[in-house]
Specification:
2 copies of one chain form a homodimer.
Chain A (H helix, E strand, L loop, with lengths): L1 E7 L3 E8 L4 E8 L6 H18 L7 E8 L2 E3 L4 E4 L6 E3 L1 H6 L6 E5 H12 L8 E6 L3 E7 L2 E2 L31 H4 L1 H14 L4 H9 L6 H7 L3 H25 L3 E5 L7 H14 L10 E4 L6 H8 L3
Helix pairs in contact in A: 3-10, 5-8, 6-7, 7-8, 8-9
Chain lengths: 314, 314
């Protein structure tokens, strides 16, 4: 059986032809050009779908479903993109529009939710019933699954775990509120922390690492820490606390089987996961009595979007 | 059809005989004496059940179900009290024990969850599909319902919304972590804020109100505020922000139909609800675009426990 998974991003639209076991048979992508009229973007999505089924000489009738993941507020029940952050999508009836081209079931979802669903079906969450995927990037995306169902909220407006409170009256967040978790624990926040530390000591190890790498990135502090730099240790240690404390909030609410961490920073791997796990074990509610949860690196990474989108239909 | 709802508290065990529409036919209570052996407490629960069905001349066979709400970590699937805060209950197989006395279905749940379920079935949440009940008391209890299902988490250890992060590295909370919402927005926290303000100005209006009332309570600042006291206005205004910001965290995750507020402080009524509503509208994620949620006073108050417990079986 064949499915299509489409991952709409601000830069590119990725598509994959996928079988029921989550094998990616073909991948292809086209530029989004996000400022265009939404109908042109949807036309390109339909053309991308045609390209993908053409690769295996399939007909439209062979498709069992098309799933589409989009960044922003998505109303899956209505099949409408309420609002997308970086793409010219406002109240776009994408399901209806795509149905002009395809007759198979079409499902849509928010990209973070879709990625979490992909991890549950085909990735690090296989076999779990509940999981939270936390993607540390420009912001913090969260996809929360309880009993195999994505937490969507009214009109698809829930699941914004990056915007839980972290520090009352703290740093201004992009959402307009102060002190959101995202403002402290996103990759962007780590980069700002690193930049600040470098500006205080422009001749230090972190500054040197940044010069070698050509920029300050989410890796800078981690690399410098491995070289034994005390300042980098401090940056990383604080960042681990920031990430962990938001996770603890989510664990206290959901107590899921698994918490998965995605985004470039998760490439720091086990060393980072272990430190987060320790703090979460220690400070989550009823630490000694309540069931432990497991913190792991997400598995699907760049393919999470297309696999998760397809998984919506499987 | 007849149901029993049992509400186990640290001081007393309340019971109610309830019909399928949520009418309370009889109520009765017995002291908990929480330090006793758990079997003695369960024996008293069974006796209370007998008393209740005796009032209507019913037989055990007439009962369609018994629901029991208990404070602490409850595993409803296993029918086990994992741990209760103020009662000598640790790994107590209460469902099995009660089944020695009754053959009808027996369901158990955490008291905050049970109360939320009661509001959904019979109270301020009638007709809603999703709601969050926030009880502002000694701590903050939260009962979260998504799509008619209580958010339980692994082993029933979820739903602890009082212990989401509020202020990084802030006040020490009873749970061992620092900066939980509960440490700022519970009724106890309000009392501490009021006491602190009074100690700074022992001749002020709040001090006077406290003397008249015989103690500092959750009402003190509200009463003084109504008298035009600037210091009380400040206390109440901060408290409203603290309560609201935790609600915003939960709204960003769940975007429910309704948020209900219970506990003594909810008696401050519409004036308080409106102020919370304003801040939640303003600062919840995507404020202008996303569906508004409604903040209301919980309805069932002291009967929430027994009605919610019975509702587990209805």
């Amino acid at each position: 059986m064949y499915y299509l998974g489409i991952d709409v991003g601000g830069m590119s639209i990725k598509g994959g032809l996928i079988d029921e076991k989550g094998n990616i048979l073909f991948k292809e992508s086209v530029p989004t050009m996000p400022e265009r009229d939404y109908k042109d973007i949807i036309e390109d999505i339909a053309a991308l779908c045609d390209t993908l089924i053409g690769k295996e000489n399939l007909k439209k009738n062979d498709l069992k479903g098309i799933g589409v993941g989009i960044p922003g507020t998505i109303d899956p029940e209505k099949g409408v993109i309420v609002y997308a952050n970086n793409i010219n999508f406002k109240k776009v009836p994408i399901k209806k529009e795509l149905s002009k081209y395809f007759t198979c079931p079409i499902k849509i979802g928010n990209d973070a939710n879709v990625a979490a669903f992909g991890e549950l079906k085909f990735g690090a969450g296989k076999g779990a019933r509940d999981l939270i995927l936390i993607t540390l990037g420009t912001g913090i995306g969260t996809g929360i699954i309880v009993d195999n169902q994505i937490i969507l909220g009214k009109g698809g407006a829930g699941g914004e775990g990056g915007h839980i409170g972290f520090k009352y009256n703290g740093k201004k967040c992009s959402c307009g509120k102060r002190g959101c978790w995202e403002a402290y624990a996103s990759a962007s926040a780590l980069i700002k922390m690193t930049e600040k530390a470098i500006s205080k000591n422009p001749l230090g190890v972190m500054a040197e690492v940044a010069r070698e790498e050509g920029k300050v990135s989410g890796k800078t502090a981690f690399i410098a820490e491995k070289k034994g730099d005390k300042e980098a240790q401090k940056v990383v240690s604080n960042y681990v606390k920031y990430v962990s404390d938001g996770i603890i909030s989510l664990v206290n609410i959901f107590r899921p089987d698994l918490v998965l961490i995605g985004g470039g920073i998760s490439n720091e791997g086990d060393a980072l996961m272990k430190r987060i796990q320790q703090r979460v074990n220690r400070f989550s509610y009823g630490g000694k009595i309540n069931p432990k949860i497991t913190i792991k690196k997400a598995l699907l990474m760049n393919d999470a979007g297309i696999l998760g989108a397809a998984a919506l239909c499987i």
